[in-house]
Amino acid sequence: MEDVRFFYQQANRCYQLAWQSFDLRVAQRLNARGNEHTAKARERRSQNGRTSDEETSDPRGFNR
Questions:
Q1: For the chain, which terminal residue's Cβ has fewer other Cβ atoms within 10 angstroms, N or C?
Q2: Which pTM does this prediction carry?
Q3: Residue 35 domain-assigned?
Q4: 6 vs 41: CA distance, rounded Å
């Protein structure tokens, strides 16, 4: 559970920095990194077999 939360927090931080970046290449790299962290979190969550609403929500708040 901690691993999943950590990866979602890291993804959220990358997405926030991407939105604040004035350099398009940096923003794209940060967005890609955020996507990687989100994928890792989802993989870990599926390994743990957890499916609660809190854990399945998007860290950027789009699924809420």
A1: C
A2: 0.59
A3: yes
A4: 8
